[in-house]
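Hey, I'm writing a tutorial for new members on how sequence and structure tokens pair up, and I'd like a real worked example in the thread rather than a made-up one. If someone can provide the structure for the chain below, I'll link this post from the tutorial.
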Amino acid sequence: MRNFRSLAQLLILLSCGATLAACGSDEAAATTTGTDDVAVDNDAAMLDAADATGDATDGASDDAVADSAAPDVGQDAGKDTVDSDAPFATASHTALPQLLYGGVDVLHKPHIVTVTFANDPFADQVEQFAAQIQNTQWWAAWSGAYCSSAGSCVTKGDAAKVRLTATAAKSYTDTTVKGGASTIQDLIKTNLDSAALPAPVTDTVYVIYFPQGTQITLASGGGQPAAKSCQSFGGYHHSMAYGSGQIAYAVLPECKNGGPGMSQLDEIILSASHEIAEAVTDPYFTQTAQGEMPGGFNINTQDLNAIPWELALGGGEVGDLCPDLPYGGFGHAVTTDTTPNYKVTRVWSNAAAKANHNPCVPADPGPYFNCAPEKNKGTHVNIELGQSKTIALHAFSDQPVAAWTVTAIDIDSFQGGGTPLTFDFNGQTSATVNNGDIVNMTITRDYNAQPASPYGAIAMIMSTSADGQSTNYWPIWSYTQKELTGQ
């Protein structure tokens, strides 16, 4: 949700570990945030060094690819599945990113306190959702993989509910900047002091639902415009000082502008599942003059191959990397094994990503397949205005699978901007690939079209199954020298 004046500013903030406390949401496409520390002496040198030397954090599955262009893959390539008589092996490829632990505890046994205002029409449903969600297969699919130390992992906790007697105000403010004004934090403190809200116990997170018609303004500092609820975001999580410690909370505006086929309740629950998963795995923040420094699980921004994921998806937490609505179906909501069946977001699994499986869980049944750009040569590329660059894409799957189609889209088309990037695959608009194939994709930066974000343009590689039912994605970050230096 933070807009940067230049790519150089973005990298400087990454080097300071500054980030916006609010994660990306399923409601509206957000801009980038940065997380964790990056050792940066010079922005351009940082990228040049990565291009030359690679990044050891990517894992054993990374490619060692020569500088020569990859062989062409024609439209008929890979149409057969792998020979059933031969042992199957996932083709070598750039590793999927990992979320790193920042040293501040996770919520091991979450105590989810659902807070609603008087006359909230969805109070019954959101309370029921919180009471059931920790006992679902959805929760089990991702929670146990996030641990602050050996044996100290996220498990099942419990739930409570509070219905405030007051109606919600027409507007509230919140901030990610140290010393900033926050009427939401004032609201929490006032109701804790009066015992209208139960006092926090270990692993408490207050999940506060604001009825439609209440606007929340979130200030992020740094000269950036404040974000508005149901316009820039559909929910966020945060933390605040209280007593001698911190308490975690999530803010859920009950937005009406859901995605296609989504009811208002669907949208509320989808955002709630997103923010609860992130509040549990990254609950506490330190406020600085630049913004927020998270301490739980966030994408590894010391790895330049991982940064495009955060830039493309609007955040680096467990929910951000598995988007549902903003980009028209880069994944999808899944239903819970509850009564009724609520729609919830899929969640990034470090364990699945490391094993080359679908990192967004619960995963669809069947093989996981994707196309990854070359490590350090294609994940982030300098493309000047009016110029083109060709990138080798490496197709891989975790099981034998029918050949799939690879295409690409410009993220700006989903963020209200122009379309600065165009693509072709060996002269075609798409290619057909299978595990082990390598295909050349040429990216052209339009001379006139400008990206919506000042740090550059993002391409999203889309791998779509033969039946059109499954799509997986991989981002590529492109920038001009002016965007890199800010000059």
